[in-house]
Design goal:
By secondary structure, this protein is α/β, with parallel strands linked by helices. Helix content is 37%, strand content 15%. Helix 11 (327-334) crosses helix 14 (377-395) and helix 14 (377-395) runs parallel beside helix 15.
């Protein structure tokens, strides 16, 4: 199959993606990003197998198991599960490697004849010991979070602040998680030597990894969204009568919504719609109290979410932690809606590169930005156009997949060279 215009001339390859979560067995955007990349590669003639761990998802999921996953996208999905429930991911968390699924991983990765094995978020699925699996394949690690340098993944120290310096054991206990004793050995360092290329999701995340002692070079490859479709900008019926700002994401403390909700009492000209769910929902509802301007709409399907984006004045992204990218920002851009994002982590590089929104440092900054975008329609529309153009040129499949394939080629060359030296 010939590559698309502008793409690297890479013959059809066999990929294996190893990840803890994969839709519908997922919580946040990382698994969706893995699915989008897998589908994009399949559309370009490659074969992709995804291996994920149902035990890990069910251990963290409170509620019924999701409906059967979608079929027909061409991605081969292998869902691993055992009869022991939480025991399997707990053992993996403690020893840093696959336990009950060890032989299955060996069978899949060592005997599957893959050209490329891309380890995504494999923390609870297999741990770092999995990095030695894969036979002769080129091996890539994509750091969707900060797990390589942080046991809690998120650099959110003691559940109260962005992490300025390591206090890992005390911090893990604060999260009610048993310390990972393997992190105190040389296991991670030894296993990382099996990897040919590391990928960070933003320049900020790459720098943060190195700041916390990660010694390997990292490529930067952002999240991707499907290529533009005319339906992306179609505007259906308004989901809400009054003008509104939108929040999309998991309802967790690190997402910072607890700082935005009280401000709505000082902003009578619009409402705040909150799309998502999570462990912090009850506390956020308590903070909102009897406010008529804050509406919790729950978890919204991607199809319906498009309409929420399309009619919003702007999407507010108030995270208070060090995220690796901020996928909600580019999703908002895709639907022609500007963003107002906290000036932290990777958000400044995304917003500045696109010109698709504003950044804020304080409550007053946020309120001022909200007023500007609501009162000056031309200004708001200019930001929206900038953001959409940034999505097309920087974060669409056609922009990101060629970069990924170039990284894959480099990893394959390194892999072949390392085999030749043996």
């Amino acid at each position: 199959m010939l590559p698309r215009a502008g793409e690297t001339d890479v013959s059809a390859l066999r990929f294996c993606f190893v990840t803890t979560f994969y839709p519908p067995y997922n919580f946040g955007g990382d698994a969706i990003a893995v699915q989008r990349l897998a589908r994009a590669l399949v559309k370009r003639g490659h074969h992709v197998t995804v291996v994920h761990d149902v035990d890990a998802y069910l251990a963290l999921h409170d509620g019924p198991e999701p409906d059967a996953p979608e079929e027909g996208d061409g991605v081969e999905v292998i869902a691993l599960r055992s009869r022991t429930g939480i025991l399997s991911p707990l053992l993996t968390q403690q020893i840093g490697g696959p336990t009950l699924h060890r032989s299955r991983y060996r069978e899949i990765l060592d005997e599957g004849g893959y050209d490329v094995v891309n380890f995504h978020n494999a923390s609870l699925a297999a741990g770092p010991r999995i990095y030695s699996y894969g036979g002769k394949a080129a091996k890539i690690v994509t750091a969707h979070d900060h797990w390589l340098v942080c046991p809690t993944h998120v650099l959110w120290r003691h559940k109260r602040e962005p992490c300025p310096a390591r206090q890992c054991i005390r911090c893990q206990l604060r999260y009610h998680r048993p310390p990972q004793l393997w992190r105190m050995t040389g296991l991670l360092g030894r296993e990382l030597e099996n990897i040919h290329v590391f990928i960070a999701m933003s320049d900020f995340s790459r720098k943060k990894h190195h700041e916390f002692g990660f010694k390997h070079e990292m490529e930067v490859l952002p999240f991707l969204l499907p290529d533009p479709d005319p339906s992306d900008l179609e505007v259906g019926e308004r989901p809400h009568d009054r003008p509104y700002f939108l929040f999309v994401g998991r309802l967790e403390k690190i997402k910072g919504l607890q700082h935005v909700i009280p401000l709505m009492r000082r902003y009578p000209d619009a409402d705040l719609l909150v799309a998502g769910d999570g462990t912090y929902t009850d506390e956020l509802v308590r903070i909102a109290g009897d406010s008529d301007s804050v509406k919790f709409v729950g978890r919204v399907s991607s199809e319906n979410l498009s309409n929420y984006y399309a009619h919003a004045i702007a999407t507010i992204v108030p995270s208070v932690c060090f995220e690796t990218f901020g996928i909600v920002i580019i999703e908002s851009f895709r639907h022609g809606t500007p963003v107002i994002a906290r000036n932290i982590g990777p958000f400044p590089e995304t917003v500045t590169a696109s010109g698709g929104g504003e950044l804020f440092d304080s409550d007053d900054d946020l309120l001022s930005a909200m007023a500007r975008l609501q009162q000056d329609r031309n200004y708001r529309d200019t930001l929206a156009e900038n953001g959409y153009r940034g999505y097309v040129c920087t974060w669409s499949e056609s922009a990101v997949v060629p970069q990924y394939l170039e990284i894959v080629e480099r990893a394959m060359r390194i892999s072949a060279g390392s085999r030749g030296q043996r």
